[in-house]
Known about the structure:
Mg(2+) binds at residues 164, 166, 389. By secondary structure, the chain is α+β, with helices and mostly antiparallel strands. The chain has two domains: 26-357 and 422-494, no CATH class; 358-421, Dna Ligase, domain 1. The chain is 38% helix and 24% strand. Helix 6 packs parallel to helix 13 (298-309) and helix 18 (366-377) runs antiparallel to helix 19 (398-407). The chain is globular and about 65 Å long. Bound molecules: adenosine-5'-diphosphate and magnesium ion (2 copies). The site of one magnesium ion has 3 residues, from strand 6.
Amino acid sequence: MHGRLPSLVLPRKSESEVLLPPVAEDEVLHNNSLIQQLIVAAKDAALLHGVLMRTKEEPSSSEATSYAPFSLFPSPVPKKLFTQACEVQQDFNMLVDRISQDSEFLTKALASTVEVDDFTAGLFSIYKEVLKEGIAQPITLGINRSDYMFDRGLDHNVSLKQIEINTIAASYAGLAERVPDIHRHVLNFWGKSDEAAKVLSNPAVKGIAEGIAKAWQLYGSPSAVVLFLVEKVSRNIFDQRCLEMELWNKNIRVIRRQTVDIHERGSLDDEKKLFVDGYEIAVAYFRTGYSPEDYQNENCWQARLLIERSKAIKCPDIATHLVGTKKVQQELARSGVVEKYLTECPKSAQRIRATFVGLYSIDEGPEGDEIITKALEDPESFVLKPQREGGGNNIFGEEVRQLLGTIKDGPKRSAYILMDRIKPQIVKNYLLYPGTPSKLSDCVVELGVFGVYIRKCRKLIMNESAGHLLRTKSTEFADGGVSAGVAVLDTPYLI
Ligand code: ADP
Ligand code: MG
Ligand code: MG
């Protein structure tokens, strides 16, 4: 294909300040026959390299499997901001871990939320019960992912701004590690070998598996296993399998069970060791348990409590799960809070603070009233967020006005927080979803950085930044991730 290609421009901005893929001129992006050839090559590369997902039609079977949604080209990402996101990750690990040990802070921060949000209240009551009984396991494992967008400020300076931090079931490390292979192939196929060589590698699975393996080792029982708690329907099973395989390769046995299995067949012995189907559990790694649908009946809550009370090392423990709520994120943004938890490392606090946008409590009272009035006047500048995970739950635009109008006069408003709306840089790309013709789209990217840490008693004995995830979605969607069928997997192309 080499000879027929237009010259390379790196990176380009079209007239409307939209960033193009770093290897494409506008006319290349509209060269349908070239694009179709690249798409065919890319899809086969995705299958070959294991960027896989079960299909919508058969979400419980690996018999029908296709590629996981991904972008044809790597998207441009400012190097400075990518580095900033990687560098602040250890600071975030430390902050999350410290907050998780402060029951007074968590109780106060979540007090108004648990009054009106049953799901958060359910998690919180497990937390209280565990605190009352005493924590059986002094070691905790954290695997989180801090997500950012590149905000186009009023001055057109693009800056790194945090969307949220996920402290439970932070996913896509497995597939994200494999996407660079597709993008390298697309670029090579096109004859752009210099650019292909620049596509970043992403050691996400390696870093995360090292964390789980280290926790397993610290548990100190060679015959004990790692338990993956999974949903009944796991379309994204291959992402989890990447991690499982890495552990099997380290001679660590992994078992997969649903919460209901733990209720039916899990038990604690008199030392609070957790046993399931005859296996002693060293590490309980949650890939479920973050949304109300994961707790369909009381048995699921009982199972979560059983795990939390046990001696198994939890990833995350219930306290760390709660630190990931939107409400806690909002309380952390208050002046002086981050700084208080990181007094001996003011630089860490500064690095964290630099990624925050405005976050606001809308609890009853003058502070909440004032920000609600602002949001009613200018809903496009805010996002209204409930205490939910997994994408698709936030409220944008005109709906902010509508919902605030209905909740503003009662206690229900405490179930939500308001956040400044980030206006991200637009990039062009082709987004590939199985069974859907692809078209050139205006997109926004969201960069996630994985963090892994282990604390023993009060001391962090591991604290790492462990790879990244770039997700891209069409500007038609304000919300929604890869699992929701909205975003696709991508690779940062540093510019
Ligand atoms: P979830 O836990 O459900 O993933 P997020 O806080 O990550 O919740 O929000 C989901 C999506 O909503 C994000 O991926 C992003 O597209 C959009 N979003 C969230 N917060 C903002 C914001 N402050 N500005 C712009 N978009 C946002
Ligand atoms: Mg989340
Ligand atoms: Mg999110």
